[in-house]
Amino acid sequence: MRDTLSVLPLTVTDLVFEAGGRRLVDGIGFALPRGGLTVLIGPNGSGKSLTLRLCHGLLAPTAGAVSWAAERGTIAGVKRHAMVFQKPVMLRRSARANMLHALAAAGVARSERGVRCDAALERFGLAPLAERPARLMSGGEQQRLAIARAWSLRPEVLFLDEPTSQLDPGATRQIEEMLAALRGEGMTLVMATHDMGQARRLADRVLFLHRGRLVEDAEARTFFAGPASPEARAFIAGDLVW
Fold first, then answer.
1. To 10 degrees, the CA torsion angle through 241, 224, 161, 10?
2. Residue 238 reports pLDDT greater than 90
3. What is the domain-level CATH number for residue 209?
4. What is the distance between the alpha carbons of residues 51 and 113, in angstroms, rounded to a whole number?
5. Over the chain, what is the mean pLDDT?
6. Which residues contact 89 (CB under 8 A, 6 or more apart)?
7. To the nearest whole percent, how much of the chain has pLDDT over 70?
8. CA-to-CA distance for 231 and 226, rounded, in angstroms?
9. Is residue 84 part of a domain?
10. Would residue 140 count as lying in a domain?
11. Residue 104: predicted pLDDT
12. Cα(182)–Cα(37) distance, rounded to whole angstroms?
């Protein structure tokens, strides 16, 4: 069933995004097949977050195209991708109510919402916190809830924008373990990060961006063993890259 309903591959073609008279994403193109964890890295302002938002559909490109298999006639109208942000947006409700709201907004049948919600809370170790006000949870707990909330929507692709940048090492390790488990279950993950250690630990593929352009697209092992571009070599070495 999943093969028939797949939204992948995702094809990004000559993607451009301009704002304030500046070209912030400049001609990016790549294909995203099913499976694995793709990491977007690059200096601040390189276009990582914008690229994620453009792919997810939160922003409309100035030019170019983001094309899912669904939009090419396979399952038109079906959205099978979700996004987790650097700072999760939480309603003034309990953890469980936040998840139920997301399921309702996604059009999940009322009879199924509770089952999905409870399964997600249990799956990610959040069941004991189900009735806690979400905004009073720690940063790590909120991020775990955000990922659980996204997982409950049953996406095929999960975009993550710097999901651990504001977390301590312990919470970061928990999030990384969650992501590794989701990848192992077959979910396709695309994540922006500034943490090179994290990228080395998790990535199957690296997209290196610089000044809004895609400079390198390589398997993670190949990229970290020897970046092909001078910009990527300088970035990996910790030098300032403008």
1. 110
2. no
3. 3.40.50.300
4. 31
5. 92
6. none
7. 93
8. 12
9. yes
10. yes
11. 95
12. 10
Please say whether the beta carbons of 163 and 84 come within 8 A.
Answer: yes
| φ, ψ at 54 (rounded to 5°) | -65, -40
Number of domains forming the structure of the chain: 1
Q: Give the tokens for residue 214.
A: 């895609």
Q: What is the pLDDT of residues 53-79, one digit of tens each?
A: 999 999 999 999 999 986 654 444 446
The pair of structure tokens assigned to 6 is 């797949």
Within-domain flag for 29: no
C-alpha distances out from residue 163 to 6, 66, 141, Å: 25, 23, 12
69 within some domain: no
Domain limits for position 153: 35-49+77-236
Q: What share of the chain is helix, strand, coil (3-state, %, to 5)?
A: 40, 25, 35
Structure tokens at 193: 């990060």
Between the alpha carbon of residue 215 and those of residues 46, 70, 117, 156, 231, the distances in Å are 10, 28, 41, 27, 8
The Cα 105–Cα 102 span in angstroms is 5
Q: Do 237 and 38 touch, CB atoms closer than 8 A?
A: no
State the chain's maximal CA–CA distance in angstroms: 55
Give the three-state DSSP class for 44: coil
